[in-house]
Amino acid sequence: MRDDVQLDRPPRVVPPVLMYHSVSPATTPDPNLLRVHPDRLDAQLRALARMGLRGVSLRELVEARDGGEGARMVALTFDDGYRDFLEHAVPVLDRHGMTGTVYVVAGRLGGENDWDEGPRLPLMDADEVRAVAAAGHEVGSHSSSHAHLAGLDPAALREEVAGSRLALEEVLGRPVPGFCYPYGDFDAAAAQAARDAGYDHACVTRDYSVADRFTIPRFYVGQRDNGPRLAAKLGRHLLARTRVR
Ligand SMILES: [Zn+2]
């Protein structure tokens, strides 16, 4: 996919990567704080634009950084592949001329988030995943079954990381360069499995301890994050990444 020199080189500066899950106007209980209302997402994207920032897929951001560009980009990532992404997030992203990355659980397409305690939410099926890609957004892998990857035995790890990539490439008919560790849970073997599977990069949650190309940190954005709170989180991200370098 890329030459070997590029593969293990981290993005020049750890880029800001926002992490979302569900985007929906639903009012049912949301104990795991997975949901952001479409109006809130709209306000957050407006706030980013006011800061001179453009939301893009993580693939686009990493490619831009590889080329020495993308300083005004932030990546917008949406975990688990909830069906509401197509209905509620895509129109808001379109309105702002922004794109995002959806990390889908390859073995659960058309199913539910049965790995979570709490409310069950429907996940996109294969046709919907293709529709997301056709609408100009990135589809990445979030493993085969949303397993905890740290400490997993080698064969199961390969199935979760490499197997999910093959399955998604079959669905999409195109390469899948991005991987996202379920629960942000990774160890050295999991990161190596992502490299070995041919991914270009992978992202984690919050953890800034490694922050290389296969452990790109992300921070949580939720319903309570208005413009000033989002700006504060971006600021904290800049400080955190400074500490690790
Ligand atoms: Zn997840």
Poorly predicted regions: 1-8
**Which ligands appear in the coordinates?**
zinc ion
CATH superfamily: Glycoside hydrolase/deacetylase
**What series of H and E elements makes up the topology?**
HEEEHEHEHEHEHEHEEH
Mean pLDDT: 92
What is the makeup of the main sheet?
6 strands, parallel
Total separate domains? 1
SSE class: alpha/beta
Rg estimate, integer Å: 17 Å
Count of alpha/pi helices: 8
Got a strand count? 10
Q: Can you name the CATH architecture?
A: Alpha-Beta Barrel
* Proportion of strand residues: 5-15%
The top-level CATH class is Alpha Beta
CATH topology: TIM Barrel
What is the overall silhouette? globular
**What distance lies between the first and last C-alpha atoms, to the nearest angstrom?**
27 Å
Keywords: Signal
GO molecular function: hydrolase activity, acting on carbon-nitrogen (but not peptide) bonds
Subcellular location: Secreted
Domain NodB homology: 72-245
Account of the protein in words:
The protein is an alpha/beta fold. It has a single domain (4-234), classed as TIM Barrel (Alpha-Beta Barrel). It contains eight helices and ten strands. The chain has helices at 4-7, 38-50, 58-66, 84-95, 126-134, 154-172, 188-196, 227-244; strands at residues 17-20, 22-23, 35-36, 54-56, 73-80, 101-104, 138-141, 178-180, 201-203, 219-220. Strands 1, 4, 5, 6, 7 and 10 form a six-stranded parallel β-sheet that branches. Helix 2 runs parallel beside helix 4 (84-95) and helix 2 (38-50) crosses helix 8 (227-244). Zinc ion is lined by residues 79-80, 142, 146, 182.
In short:
It comes from Blastococcus aurantiacus. This protein has 245 residues and is of the alpha/beta class.
